[in-house]
Amino acid sequence: MDGKTVLVTGGTGGIGKETARGLAARGARVIVVGRDPVRAQRAADELGAGGGRVEALAADVTGQRDLARLAAQVAERCDRLDVLINNVGTHPPRRTLTEDGVEATFAAHVLAPFTLTRLLLPLLGGRVVNITGGIPGGRIELDNLQAERRYLGWTFSQYNHTKTMLMAMSLRFAEEVADSGVTVNVAYPGHGHTPMNQAMTVAGFPYVYRPVVPLLQVLTPRIFGDLSKPSRSSVYLAASGDVEGVTGTYFTMKCRRVPWPASVLDRRNQDTIWALCEDLTRETV
Q1: What is the pTM of this model?
Q2: Is 63 helix (H, G, I), strand (E, B) or coil?
Q3: 15-41 residue pLDDT tens
Q4: DSSP letter (8 states) at residue 204
Q5: What spatial distance separates the first Cα and last Cα of the chain, rounded to whole Å?
Q6: CA atoms lying within 13 Å on the CB side of residue 121
């Protein structure tokens, strides 16, 4: 990764921070993006202490205005961006709207990767890695994309729903830029004891899982405390020569290619999500 520049959203903690650490150790120039400028700079200082070149930028990527500003700042710093890792995640316990009036998890997991990738395409000369998570792969509800009908249910959560939508959007994006030399792939990291997961309350879980949440809160730090493991798939897709030129592909936490879920392959789902993203970003990209 010597001489290559990587941008990691949500890079100030959790899986994103460990991804940044792994890529900096491989010689990449890494720019971590976080909502809090103090925390972002602190993460960059920590990650760069071992000799890596790590920089910080602050942006709330759920907002279109901040995304536009972030892209402009990246363009000022870089002549070329080799890898964009859309890693940021959020899991509020109830439906909330961003300053743009967009449901927050949809804004973070689907709209932000769509917008930022489009804004940075003139700089991108390599790879886009989008990070899914939770339990993706379920049905995509086209009448509930922004949790208009329900945010949580017995087994349904908007978090998992939007992570599945991210996969569908990514597959469509890979097709859209197929002739540009830019590749778009999705990594599944597995589970990790991340700051986001640590902050979750019982109210954030679908109803059927709530009785076991206290047990999960005890076991998760012990079983999933090593965040270098869930960062392996994103580091692999960003750095490995094995995936040079590979695009439109889904990789597991063990860095293996697997088939896309049926809901992701559904062209109607792809087209509907793509059209909504275009509509919501009309004034930005």
Answers
A1: 0.95
A2: coil
A3: 999 999 999 999 999 999 999 999 999
A4: G
A5: 29
A6: 18
